[in-house]
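Exercise 7 asks you to align residues with C-alpha coordinates for two separate proteins.
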Amino acid sequence: MNLDNLDSKLNNQVAILICGHGSRNKLAITEFQELTNLIQKRYPNFLVEYGFLEFAKPSIVDALDKLKDLSIKKVIAIPAMLFAAGHVKNDIPSLLMNYSSKTGIEIIYGRELGINNLMISAACERVKDVFKQNNNLKPEESLLVVVGRGSSDPDANSNVSKITRMIVEGIGLGWGETVFSGVTFPLVEPGLKNVVRLGYKNIIIFPYFLFSGVLVTRIKRQSDLVAINNPNISFIHAKYLSSQSYVVETFVERIEEILNNEGNNFMNCSTCKYRSNLFGFEKEVGMVQESHHDHVEGLGISCDLCDPECNGACEIQNSNHNQEKSNSGGGLYLEQEYVEAHQHEHNHHHHNHHHHHHQHSIYPNSKHPLGPVTLRLPNED
Protein backbone atom coordinates (compact mmCIF):
# COMPACT_ATOMS: atom_id res chain seq x y z
CA MET A 1 0.00 0.00 0.00
CA ASN A 2 1.39 3.43 -0.97
CA LEU A 3 0.86 5.57 2.10
CA ASP A 4 1.83 8.72 0.22
CA ASN A 5 -1.33 8.41 -1.85
CA LEU A 6 -3.60 8.37 1.16
CA ASP A 7 -5.60 11.47 1.79
CA SER A 8 -3.86 13.49 4.51
CA LYS A 9 -7.15 14.40 6.13
CA LEU A 10 -8.02 10.73 6.46
CA ASN A 11 -4.63 10.04 8.00
CA ASN A 12 -5.22 12.73 10.59
CA GLN A 13 -8.44 11.02 11.66
CA VAL A 14 -7.09 7.46 11.80
CA ALA A 15 -4.66 6.15 14.39
CA ILE A 16 -2.97 2.85 15.16
CA LEU A 17 -3.15 1.46 18.69
CA ILE A 18 -0.84 -1.35 19.79
CA CYS A 19 -2.47 -3.20 22.69
CA GLY A 20 0.04 -4.84 25.03
CA HIS A 21 -0.40 -7.07 28.03
CA GLY A 22 1.60 -4.95 30.44
CA SER A 23 4.24 -5.75 33.04
CA ARG A 24 5.70 -4.27 36.20
CA ASN A 25 9.14 -5.06 34.82
CA LYS A 26 10.76 -1.88 33.51
CA LEU A 27 12.82 -3.71 30.89
CA ALA A 28 9.71 -5.31 29.42
CA ILE A 29 8.02 -1.92 29.12
CA THR A 30 11.12 -0.40 27.53
CA GLU A 31 11.22 -3.22 24.99
CA PHE A 32 7.55 -2.71 24.20
CA GLN A 33 8.11 1.01 23.66
CA GLU A 34 11.02 0.26 21.34
CA LEU A 35 8.80 -2.04 19.30
CA THR A 36 6.11 0.63 19.06
CA ASN A 37 8.70 3.17 17.90
CA LEU A 38 9.75 0.81 15.10
CA ILE A 39 6.12 0.49 14.01
CA GLN A 40 5.74 4.28 14.09
CA LYS A 41 8.72 4.57 11.72
CA ARG A 42 6.92 2.31 9.27
CA TYR A 43 3.84 4.54 9.41
CA PRO A 44 5.12 8.13 9.59
CA ASN A 45 1.80 9.49 8.30
CA PHE A 46 -0.22 7.88 11.09
CA LEU A 47 -0.29 8.46 14.81
CA VAL A 48 0.81 5.26 16.58
CA GLU A 49 -0.08 4.92 20.26
CA TYR A 50 0.16 2.06 22.72
CA GLY A 51 -1.68 0.97 25.84
CA PHE A 52 -1.57 -1.93 28.27
CA LEU A 53 -4.24 -4.30 29.46
CA GLU A 54 -2.89 -4.41 33.00
CA PHE A 55 0.02 -3.69 35.34
CA ALA A 56 1.39 -0.71 33.40
CA LYS A 57 0.50 2.73 32.12
CA PRO A 58 -0.86 4.02 29.89
CA SER A 59 -3.80 1.67 29.98
CA ILE A 60 -5.60 0.92 26.74
CA VAL A 61 -8.39 3.25 27.85
CA ASP A 62 -5.84 5.98 28.61
CA ALA A 63 -4.46 5.63 25.09
CA LEU A 64 -7.95 5.73 23.58
CA ASP A 65 -8.80 8.85 25.60
CA LYS A 66 -5.67 10.52 24.26
CA LEU A 67 -6.65 9.66 20.69
CA LYS A 68 -10.19 10.91 21.28
CA ASP A 69 -8.82 14.22 22.56
CA LEU A 70 -6.84 14.49 19.32
CA SER A 71 -10.09 14.18 17.33
CA ILE A 72 -9.27 10.70 16.04
CA LYS A 73 -12.37 9.13 14.48
CA LYS A 74 -11.10 5.65 13.69
CA VAL A 75 -8.64 3.43 15.55
CA ILE A 76 -6.87 0.36 14.20
CA ALA A 77 -6.23 -1.76 17.30
CA ILE A 78 -3.65 -4.54 17.04
CA PRO A 79 -3.15 -6.98 19.93
CA ALA A 80 0.55 -7.40 20.69
CA MET A 81 0.03 -11.04 21.54
CA LEU A 82 1.61 -14.12 20.04
CA PHE A 83 -1.51 -16.29 20.04
CA ALA A 84 -5.24 -15.93 20.49
CA ALA A 85 -6.20 -16.95 24.01
CA GLY A 86 -8.21 -15.18 26.70
CA HIS A 87 -6.64 -11.74 26.34
CA VAL A 88 -7.09 -11.64 22.57
CA LYS A 89 -10.49 -13.33 22.48
CA ASN A 90 -12.10 -11.78 25.55
CA ASP A 91 -10.35 -9.05 27.48
CA ILE A 92 -9.12 -6.67 24.78
CA PRO A 93 -12.12 -6.86 22.39
CA SER A 94 -14.54 -6.48 25.31
CA LEU A 95 -12.72 -3.36 26.45
CA LEU A 96 -12.55 -1.92 22.92
CA MET A 97 -16.20 -2.62 22.19
CA ASN A 98 -17.33 -0.96 25.41
CA TYR A 99 -15.22 2.10 24.67
CA SER A 100 -16.50 2.36 21.11
CA SER A 101 -20.12 2.10 22.20
CA LYS A 102 -19.67 4.86 24.78
CA THR A 103 -17.70 7.31 22.63
CA GLY A 104 -18.77 6.59 19.06
CA ILE A 105 -15.17 6.13 17.92
CA GLU A 106 -14.86 3.38 15.33
CA ILE A 107 -12.37 0.74 16.45
CA ILE A 108 -11.26 -1.97 14.04
CA TYR A 109 -9.69 -4.91 15.82
CA GLY A 110 -6.89 -6.76 14.07
CA ARG A 111 -5.49 -10.23 14.47
CA GLU A 112 -2.92 -11.54 16.90
CA LEU A 113 0.55 -12.21 15.52
CA GLY A 114 -0.20 -15.90 15.18
CA ILE A 115 1.73 -18.31 13.00
CA ASN A 116 3.02 -17.20 9.62
CA ASN A 117 6.28 -17.42 7.72
CA LEU A 118 7.49 -14.20 9.36
CA MET A 119 7.02 -15.36 12.94
CA ILE A 120 8.54 -18.74 12.10
CA SER A 121 11.52 -16.92 10.61
CA ALA A 122 11.83 -14.73 13.71
CA ALA A 123 11.91 -17.81 15.92
CA CYS A 124 14.40 -19.61 13.68
CA GLU A 125 16.72 -16.59 13.70
CA ARG A 126 16.79 -16.58 17.50
CA VAL A 127 17.76 -20.25 17.54
CA LYS A 128 20.29 -19.78 14.73
CA ASP A 129 21.94 -17.07 16.84
CA VAL A 130 22.80 -19.77 19.37
CA PHE A 131 24.78 -21.67 16.74
CA LYS A 132 26.51 -18.49 15.59
CA GLN A 133 27.66 -17.89 19.16
CA ASN A 134 28.66 -21.53 19.73
CA ASN A 135 30.63 -22.73 16.73
CA ASN A 136 31.09 -26.25 18.07
CA LEU A 137 27.36 -26.93 18.25
CA LYS A 138 25.80 -29.03 15.51
CA PRO A 139 22.05 -28.72 14.86
CA GLU A 140 21.54 -32.45 14.38
CA GLU A 141 23.18 -33.12 17.75
CA SER A 142 21.12 -30.52 19.61
CA LEU A 143 17.71 -30.74 21.23
CA LEU A 144 15.42 -27.70 21.17
CA VAL A 145 12.98 -26.93 23.96
CA VAL A 146 10.51 -24.17 23.11
CA VAL A 147 8.85 -22.62 26.16
CA GLY A 148 5.41 -21.14 25.60
CA ARG A 149 3.47 -18.90 27.95
CA GLY A 150 0.87 -21.52 28.73
CA SER A 151 -2.88 -20.95 28.62
CA SER A 152 -6.19 -22.52 29.53
CA ASP A 153 -6.96 -22.34 25.80
CA PRO A 154 -5.84 -25.54 24.01
CA ASP A 155 -5.79 -23.75 20.67
CA ALA A 156 -3.08 -21.36 21.83
CA ASN A 157 -1.10 -24.14 23.50
CA SER A 158 -1.13 -26.28 20.38
CA ASN A 159 0.23 -23.40 18.32
CA VAL A 160 3.38 -23.37 20.46
CA SER A 161 3.92 -27.01 19.54
CA LYS A 162 3.58 -26.10 15.88
CA ILE A 163 6.21 -23.39 16.24
CA THR A 164 8.53 -25.97 17.79
CA ARG A 165 8.12 -28.36 14.87
CA MET A 166 8.61 -25.63 12.28
CA ILE A 167 11.90 -24.59 13.90
CA VAL A 168 13.13 -28.17 14.20
CA GLU A 169 12.45 -28.91 10.54
CA GLY A 170 13.61 -25.51 9.33
CA ILE A 171 17.02 -25.78 10.97
CA GLY A 172 17.38 -29.56 11.00
CA LEU A 173 17.67 -30.00 14.74
CA GLY A 174 18.06 -33.39 16.36
CA TRP A 175 14.87 -33.22 18.39
CA GLY A 176 12.27 -30.78 19.64
CA GLU A 177 10.02 -30.58 22.69
CA THR A 178 7.49 -28.04 23.94
CA VAL A 179 7.00 -26.97 27.56
CA PHE A 180 5.21 -24.06 29.21
CA SER A 181 5.92 -21.47 31.88
CA GLY A 182 2.55 -21.82 33.59
CA VAL A 183 -1.15 -22.75 33.62
CA THR A 184 -0.88 -25.92 31.51
CA PHE A 185 1.52 -28.85 31.22
CA PRO A 186 4.30 -29.82 31.07
CA LEU A 187 5.98 -26.97 32.91
CA VAL A 188 9.66 -26.22 32.44
CA GLU A 189 11.19 -28.25 35.25
CA PRO A 190 9.23 -31.51 34.86
CA GLY A 191 9.43 -31.18 31.09
CA LEU A 192 13.20 -30.84 31.13
CA LYS A 193 13.51 -33.77 33.53
CA ASN A 194 11.93 -35.91 30.85
CA VAL A 195 13.94 -34.32 28.04
CA VAL A 196 17.35 -35.08 29.58
CA ARG A 197 16.59 -38.80 29.32
CA LEU A 198 16.78 -38.60 25.52
CA GLY A 199 20.56 -38.51 25.65
CA TYR A 200 21.32 -35.19 23.95
CA LYS A 201 24.33 -33.33 25.32
CA ASN A 202 23.20 -29.91 24.07
CA ILE A 203 19.78 -28.57 25.00
CA ILE A 204 18.71 -25.20 23.62
CA ILE A 205 15.98 -23.48 25.61
CA PHE A 206 14.03 -20.90 23.63
CA PRO A 207 11.40 -18.79 25.44
CA TYR A 208 8.79 -18.03 22.80
CA PHE A 209 7.91 -14.69 24.38
CA LEU A 210 7.79 -11.19 22.98
CA PHE A 211 9.42 -9.45 25.93
CA SER A 212 11.34 -9.91 29.16
CA GLY A 213 9.64 -10.24 32.53
CA VAL A 214 8.93 -12.50 35.48
CA LEU A 215 8.07 -15.50 33.32
CA VAL A 216 11.27 -15.38 31.28
CA THR A 217 13.22 -15.20 34.53
CA ARG A 218 11.23 -18.12 35.91
CA ILE A 219 12.13 -20.19 32.84
CA LYS A 220 15.82 -19.62 33.49
CA ARG A 221 15.51 -20.44 37.17
CA GLN A 222 13.53 -23.63 36.58
CA SER A 223 15.94 -24.82 33.89
CA ASP A 224 18.87 -24.16 36.22
CA LEU A 225 17.33 -26.57 38.73
CA VAL A 226 17.54 -29.34 36.15
CA ALA A 227 20.98 -28.29 34.91
CA ILE A 228 22.47 -28.63 38.41
CA ASN A 229 21.64 -32.33 38.42
CA ASN A 230 22.85 -32.88 34.86
CA PRO A 231 26.39 -31.45 34.71
CA ASN A 232 27.26 -33.40 31.55
CA ILE A 233 24.60 -31.59 29.53
CA SER A 234 24.98 -28.06 28.18
CA PHE A 235 21.85 -25.95 28.68
CA ILE A 236 21.98 -22.99 26.31
CA HIS A 237 19.42 -20.17 26.42
CA ALA A 238 18.24 -18.46 23.24
CA LYS A 239 16.93 -14.91 23.40
CA TYR A 240 13.20 -14.24 23.39
CA LEU A 241 11.72 -12.56 20.30
CA SER A 242 11.71 -8.87 21.30
CA SER A 243 11.87 -6.43 18.35
CA GLN A 244 13.27 -8.94 15.88
CA SER A 245 12.77 -7.56 12.36
CA TYR A 246 10.37 -10.33 11.32
CA VAL A 247 8.23 -9.58 14.37
CA VAL A 248 7.95 -5.94 13.29
CA GLU A 249 7.03 -7.10 9.79
CA THR A 250 4.23 -9.21 11.22
CA PHE A 251 2.77 -6.19 13.00
CA VAL A 252 2.92 -4.33 9.69
CA GLU A 253 1.14 -7.24 8.01
CA ARG A 254 -1.66 -7.12 10.58
CA ILE A 255 -2.06 -3.37 10.09
CA GLU A 256 -2.03 -3.71 6.31
CA GLU A 257 -4.79 -6.31 6.44
CA ILE A 258 -7.05 -3.59 7.80
CA LEU A 259 -5.75 -0.66 5.76
CA ASN A 260 -6.14 -2.60 2.53
CA ASN A 261 -9.59 -3.87 3.45
CA GLU A 262 -8.45 -7.37 2.57
CA GLY A 263 -11.18 -8.91 4.66
CA ASN A 264 -8.84 -11.57 6.01
CA ASN A 265 -8.08 -9.95 9.34
CA PHE A 266 -10.26 -12.48 11.15
CA MET A 267 -8.76 -14.95 13.57
CA ASN A 268 -9.22 -18.66 13.00
CA CYS A 269 -12.25 -19.88 14.95
CA SER A 270 -12.22 -23.50 13.74
CA THR A 271 -10.50 -24.70 16.92
CA CYS A 272 -11.68 -21.99 19.31
CA LYS A 273 -13.10 -23.50 22.49
CA TYR A 274 -15.82 -20.83 22.56
CA ARG A 275 -17.01 -21.58 19.01
CA SER A 276 -16.18 -25.25 18.41
CA ASN A 277 -17.22 -28.29 20.39
CA LEU A 278 -13.66 -29.23 21.29
CA PHE A 279 -13.22 -32.53 23.06
CA GLY A 280 -12.72 -31.92 26.77
CA PHE A 281 -13.86 -28.29 26.56
CA GLU A 282 -17.49 -28.78 25.58
CA LYS A 283 -18.79 -26.76 28.54
CA GLU A 284 -17.09 -23.60 27.28
CA VAL A 285 -18.89 -23.41 23.93
CA GLY A 286 -20.94 -20.22 23.80
CA MET A 287 -19.63 -18.83 27.09
CA VAL A 288 -20.00 -15.09 27.57
CA GLN A 289 -16.78 -13.46 26.41
CA GLU A 290 -16.01 -10.58 28.73
CA SER A 291 -12.99 -8.88 30.22
CA HIS A 292 -11.68 -10.09 33.57
CA HIS A 293 -9.02 -7.41 33.98
CA ASP A 294 -10.91 -4.29 35.07
CA HIS A 295 -9.53 -4.73 38.59
CA VAL A 296 -5.88 -4.37 37.56
CA GLU A 297 -6.14 -2.15 34.50
CA GLY A 298 -3.83 0.84 34.71
CA LEU A 299 -2.03 -0.19 37.87
CA GLY A 300 1.20 1.34 36.72
CA ILE A 301 3.71 1.18 39.56
CA SER A 302 6.87 -0.54 38.35
CA CYS A 303 8.51 -3.28 40.35
CA ASP A 304 11.50 -1.79 42.18
CA LEU A 305 13.02 -5.23 42.68
CA CYS A 306 13.98 -5.57 39.01
CA ASP A 307 17.53 -4.63 38.00
CA PRO A 308 16.30 -3.86 35.26
CA GLU A 309 15.67 -7.44 34.15
CA CYS A 310 13.30 -9.37 36.38
CA ASN A 311 15.22 -11.29 39.04
CA GLY A 312 12.32 -13.25 40.50
CA ALA A 313 12.47 -11.42 43.84
CA CYS A 314 8.75 -10.64 43.61
CA GLU A 315 7.99 -14.35 43.79
CA ILE A 316 10.02 -14.63 46.98
CA GLN A 317 7.85 -11.88 48.44
CA ASN A 318 4.77 -13.77 47.34
CA SER A 319 5.94 -16.91 49.11
CA ASN A 320 6.22 -14.90 52.33
CA HIS A 321 2.90 -13.14 51.73
CA ASN A 322 1.01 -16.33 50.99
CA GLN A 323 2.22 -18.85 53.56
CA GLU A 324 -1.31 -20.16 53.84
CA LYS A 325 -0.93 -21.40 50.28
CA SER A 326 1.54 -24.04 51.49
CA ASN A 327 1.15 -27.43 49.92
CA SER A 328 0.49 -30.06 52.58
CA GLY A 329 2.77 -32.44 50.71
CA GLY A 330 5.78 -30.34 51.69
CA GLY A 331 7.21 -27.13 50.27
CA LEU A 332 5.58 -24.05 48.85
CA TYR A 333 4.03 -24.13 45.43
CA LEU A 334 2.67 -21.48 43.15
CA GLU A 335 -1.00 -22.15 42.72
CA GLN A 336 -2.83 -21.44 39.50
CA GLU A 337 -3.64 -17.79 40.18
CA TYR A 338 0.06 -17.12 40.65
CA VAL A 339 1.00 -19.18 37.64
CA GLU A 340 -1.15 -16.74 35.72
CA ALA A 341 1.51 -14.13 36.62
CA HIS A 342 -0.93 -11.84 38.41
CA GLN A 343 1.01 -12.17 41.64
CA HIS A 344 2.36 -8.63 41.53
CA GLU A 345 -0.81 -6.82 42.46
CA HIS A 346 -1.04 -8.59 45.80
CA ASN A 347 2.31 -7.24 46.91
CA HIS A 348 2.46 -3.77 45.45
CA HIS A 349 -1.14 -2.60 45.74
CA HIS A 350 -3.84 -2.80 48.35
CA HIS A 351 -7.22 -1.60 47.16
CA ASN A 352 -10.05 -0.41 49.36
CA HIS A 353 -12.72 -0.61 46.70
CA HIS A 354 -14.82 -3.68 46.05
CA HIS A 355 -14.02 -5.87 43.07
CA HIS A 356 -16.60 -7.65 40.97
CA HIS A 357 -15.97 -11.37 40.90
CA HIS A 358 -16.18 -12.82 37.40
CA GLN A 359 -17.06 -16.40 36.71
CA HIS A 360 -14.01 -18.16 35.32
CA SER A 361 -14.26 -21.57 33.75
CA ILE A 362 -12.15 -24.20 35.46
CA TYR A 363 -9.26 -25.37 33.32
CA PRO A 364 -9.65 -29.18 33.22
CA ASN A 365 -5.88 -29.79 33.44
CA SER A 366 -5.07 -27.34 36.23
CA LYS A 367 -4.02 -30.18 38.57
CA HIS A 368 -2.06 -32.20 36.02
CA PRO A 369 0.96 -33.84 37.74
CA LEU A 370 3.36 -32.13 35.31
CA GLY A 371 1.58 -28.77 35.51
CA PRO A 372 1.31 -25.86 37.98
CA VAL A 373 1.49 -28.07 41.09
CA THR A 374 5.18 -28.64 40.30
CA LEU A 375 6.12 -24.96 40.18
CA ARG A 376 8.53 -24.33 43.02
CA LEU A 377 9.06 -20.96 44.61
CA PRO A 378 12.55 -19.42 44.77
CA ASN A 379 13.07 -20.21 48.46
CA GLU A 380 12.85 -23.90 47.66
CA ASP A 381 15.78 -23.79 45.25
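Second protein for Exercise 7:
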Amino acid sequence: MSKKILIDLEKYYKIKDFKADCSYYYHQGTALAAPKNWGVEKLLAKASQYIVCRQCKRADCIISCPWEALGFNDKGILERYSMRCTSCKTCSTACPFGTIYLDILPYKTSQCDYCIGRSNGEPPLCVNTDKEKILQWVDMEADESKNIHKISDYLLVVSPKWKK
Protein backbone atom coordinates (compact mmCIF):
# COMPACT_ATOMS: atom_id res chain seq x y z
CA MET A 1 0.00 0.00 0.00
CA SER A 2 1.26 3.48 -0.80
CA LYS A 3 0.56 6.76 0.95
CA LYS A 4 -2.22 8.89 -0.48
CA ILE A 5 -3.81 12.25 0.12
CA LEU A 6 -7.26 11.87 1.67
CA ILE A 7 -9.69 14.77 1.30
CA ASP A 8 -12.62 15.11 3.70
CA LEU A 9 -15.15 16.99 1.58
CA GLU A 10 -17.72 17.25 4.36
CA LYS A 11 -15.24 19.22 6.49
CA TYR A 12 -14.27 21.34 3.49
CA TYR A 13 -17.86 22.36 2.77
CA LYS A 14 -18.37 23.45 6.40
CA ILE A 15 -15.57 26.03 6.50
CA LYS A 16 -15.38 29.32 4.67
CA ASP A 17 -11.67 30.04 4.44
CA PHE A 18 -9.64 26.92 3.63
CA LYS A 19 -5.89 27.48 3.47
CA ALA A 20 -3.01 25.14 2.71
CA ASP A 21 0.42 25.88 1.29
CA CYS A 22 2.01 24.14 -1.68
CA SER A 23 5.67 23.34 -2.24
CA TYR A 24 5.36 23.87 -6.00
CA TYR A 25 6.08 27.52 -6.80
CA TYR A 26 3.50 27.91 -9.57
CA HIS A 27 0.66 26.64 -7.38
CA GLN A 28 1.17 29.35 -4.79
CA GLY A 29 -1.05 32.39 -4.82
CA THR A 30 1.94 34.73 -4.76
CA ALA A 31 3.41 33.22 -7.92
CA LEU A 32 0.12 33.61 -9.76
CA ALA A 33 -0.82 36.99 -8.29
CA ALA A 34 -3.89 35.23 -6.91
CA PRO A 35 -4.98 34.41 -3.36
CA LYS A 36 -5.48 30.68 -3.94
CA ASN A 37 -3.32 27.59 -3.89
CA TRP A 38 -4.16 26.20 -7.33
CA GLY A 39 -2.71 22.75 -6.65
CA VAL A 40 -5.07 22.15 -3.73
CA GLU A 41 -7.95 23.86 -5.56
CA LYS A 42 -7.55 21.35 -8.40
CA LEU A 43 -7.56 18.44 -5.94
CA LEU A 44 -10.72 19.72 -4.27
CA ALA A 45 -12.37 20.28 -7.66
CA LYS A 46 -11.45 16.78 -8.83
CA ALA A 47 -12.82 15.24 -5.63
CA SER A 48 -16.02 17.30 -5.80
CA GLN A 49 -16.56 16.41 -9.44
CA TYR A 50 -16.22 12.71 -8.69
CA ILE A 51 -18.72 12.88 -5.85
CA VAL A 52 -21.40 15.12 -7.38
CA CYS A 53 -21.34 14.33 -11.12
CA ARG A 54 -24.51 12.47 -12.12
CA GLN A 55 -22.65 10.64 -14.94
CA CYS A 56 -25.57 11.12 -17.33
CA LYS A 57 -25.95 8.73 -20.25
CA ARG A 58 -26.69 11.71 -22.48
CA ALA A 59 -24.06 14.01 -21.03
CA ASP A 60 -25.04 17.51 -22.17
CA CYS A 61 -21.79 18.89 -20.76
CA ILE A 62 -19.74 16.68 -23.10
CA ILE A 63 -22.03 17.25 -26.08
CA SER A 64 -21.97 21.03 -25.63
CA CYS A 65 -18.19 21.44 -25.48
CA PRO A 66 -16.99 22.94 -28.77
CA TRP A 67 -13.42 21.74 -28.12
CA GLU A 68 -14.15 18.13 -27.06
CA ALA A 69 -12.43 18.89 -23.77
CA LEU A 70 -14.65 16.68 -21.59
CA GLY A 71 -15.10 12.94 -21.46
CA PHE A 72 -15.68 10.02 -19.13
CA ASN A 73 -12.68 7.92 -18.20
CA ASP A 74 -12.85 4.12 -17.97
CA LYS A 75 -14.25 4.39 -14.41
CA GLY A 76 -17.08 6.67 -15.53
CA ILE A 77 -15.54 9.76 -13.95
CA LEU A 78 -15.90 13.01 -15.87
CA GLU A 79 -12.51 14.42 -16.83
CA ARG A 80 -11.51 17.73 -18.34
CA TYR A 81 -8.63 17.71 -20.81
CA SER A 82 -6.86 20.92 -19.87
CA MET A 83 -4.94 21.24 -23.13
CA ARG A 84 -8.23 21.37 -25.06
CA CYS A 85 -10.28 23.44 -22.60
CA THR A 86 -10.50 27.17 -23.25
CA SER A 87 -12.57 27.87 -20.12
CA CYS A 88 -15.59 28.91 -22.20
CA LYS A 89 -17.91 27.52 -19.49
CA THR A 90 -20.34 26.03 -22.01
CA CYS A 91 -20.27 22.72 -20.13
CA SER A 92 -21.23 24.42 -16.87
CA THR A 93 -24.19 26.09 -18.56
CA ALA A 94 -25.26 22.86 -20.27
CA CYS A 95 -25.19 20.66 -17.16
CA PRO A 96 -28.84 20.33 -16.07
CA PHE A 97 -27.80 19.57 -12.48
CA GLY A 98 -25.31 22.40 -11.97
CA THR A 99 -22.55 20.03 -10.93
CA ILE A 100 -19.77 21.55 -13.01
CA TYR A 101 -18.64 24.33 -10.74
CA LEU A 102 -17.17 27.49 -12.23
CA ASP A 103 -14.18 27.31 -9.87
CA ILE A 104 -12.87 24.21 -11.65
CA LEU A 105 -13.03 25.85 -15.07
CA PRO A 106 -10.31 28.52 -15.05
CA TYR A 107 -7.75 27.73 -17.73
CA LYS A 108 -4.92 26.38 -15.63
CA THR A 109 -2.69 23.65 -16.97
CA SER A 110 -0.68 23.17 -13.80
CA GLN A 111 -2.21 20.49 -11.61
CA CYS A 112 -1.26 18.78 -8.37
CA ASP A 113 1.34 16.04 -8.76
CA TYR A 114 0.79 14.79 -5.18
CA CYS A 115 4.46 15.65 -4.47
CA ILE A 116 5.47 12.28 -5.92
CA GLY A 117 9.25 12.13 -5.90
CA ARG A 118 9.52 15.46 -4.06
CA SER A 119 8.35 14.65 -0.54
CA ASN A 120 10.72 11.73 0.21
CA GLY A 121 7.93 9.83 1.94
CA GLU A 122 7.00 12.81 4.12
CA PRO A 123 3.51 14.33 3.97
CA PRO A 124 3.16 17.01 1.28
CA LEU A 125 3.28 20.61 2.46
CA CYS A 126 -0.47 21.05 1.84
CA VAL A 127 -1.22 18.30 4.37
CA ASN A 128 1.18 19.75 6.95
CA THR A 129 -0.16 23.30 6.64
CA ASP A 130 -3.88 22.46 6.60
CA LYS A 131 -5.02 23.53 10.07
CA GLU A 132 -8.55 22.19 9.52
CA LYS A 133 -7.30 18.63 8.78
CA ILE A 134 -9.30 18.45 5.57
CA LEU A 135 -6.24 16.92 3.91
CA GLN A 136 -4.60 13.87 5.46
CA TRP A 137 -1.63 11.68 4.50
CA VAL A 138 -2.89 8.10 4.86
CA ASP A 139 -1.90 4.52 4.16
CA MET A 140 -5.29 3.05 3.24
CA GLU A 141 -7.40 1.94 0.32
CA ALA A 142 -10.87 2.91 -0.80
CA ASP A 143 -13.76 1.54 1.25
CA GLU A 144 -17.14 2.35 -0.28
CA SER A 145 -18.93 1.14 2.88
CA LYS A 146 -17.19 3.98 4.77
CA ASN A 147 -17.69 6.49 1.91
CA ILE A 148 -13.96 6.49 1.10
CA HIS A 149 -13.61 6.68 -2.69
CA LYS A 150 -10.54 6.29 -4.90
CA ILE A 151 -10.06 9.17 -7.32
CA SER A 152 -6.57 8.15 -8.45
CA ASP A 153 -3.63 6.06 -7.24
CA TYR A 154 -2.63 8.98 -5.01
CA LEU A 155 -5.96 10.53 -4.03
CA LEU A 156 -8.87 9.37 -1.89
CA VAL A 157 -11.97 11.33 -0.91
CA VAL A 158 -14.30 10.72 2.00
CA SER A 159 -17.85 11.88 1.37
CA PRO A 160 -21.24 10.35 0.62
CA LYS A 161 -21.42 9.81 -3.14
CA TRP A 162 -24.44 10.59 -5.27
CA LYS A 163 -25.97 7.38 -6.63
CA LYS A 164 -28.22 6.84 -9.62
